[in-house]
Amino acid sequence: MNEARQLEDFREGAVSLHMRFHMRYTRVASWVAVSLVLAVPALAHHSFAMFDKNRVVTVKGAVSKIEWTNPHVFIFVDVSDGKGGKTQYAVECQSPNVLMRTGWKVNTVKRGDAVAVGLYPLRDGRPGGLLDSLTLPDGKTIKG
Predict the structure, then answer these.
(1) Are residues 99 and 85 in contact, defined by beta-carbon separation less than 8 angstroms?
(2) Fewer CB in a 10 Å sphere around the end CB: N or C, the chain?
(3) E strands of the chain, at which residues?
């Protein structure tokens, strides 16, 4: 009878061990699945395929508007076309959080500032692009 009890205890222990492993595995698998589902929107947030990252174009003009908003800061620059007219360039920057961590402040660029903008141009030829660098009126160049 002692052997029968030992065999029963062994079986209960094996089942208990199996259940603990199964519960732990299920918890870990659930955590991984939830993490992946939550990460997909972050990965799908933005594609930079619309910009030609193989070349940087420099435009000079006056800042006409700044949109310091999420998810990206935009700087609008009026560039002279050389014939008395102006073309407005929409320059996409990083998020406010990223810019602030790299030293930008809300008043780093102001409306009316004469700036030179290094940008990765839009592939479709529209006036605008992704900010590479910005040269301020005092000559200081900052990365975007």
Answers:
(1) no
(2) N
(3) 57-67, 74-80, 86-92, 114-121, 128-135, 141-143
27 within domain boundaries: yes
Band (34; pLDDT cuts 50, 70, 90): low
What's the domain range around 89? Answer: 57-143
Assigned domain for 104 exists: yes
- Which amino acid makes up residue 85? G
Question: Model pTM?
Answer: 0.67
Identify the CATH number of the domain in which residue 118 sits: 2.40.50.140
Q: How many CA atoms lie within 13 A of 38 on its CB side?
A: 6
Mean pLDDT calculated for residue range 90-103: 93
Place of tokens 């870990």: 28
Residue 40 burial (CB count, 10 A)? 9
d(CA 2, CA 7): 9
Is it the case that residue 97 has pLDDT exceeding 70? yes
In a domain, 94, yes or no: yes
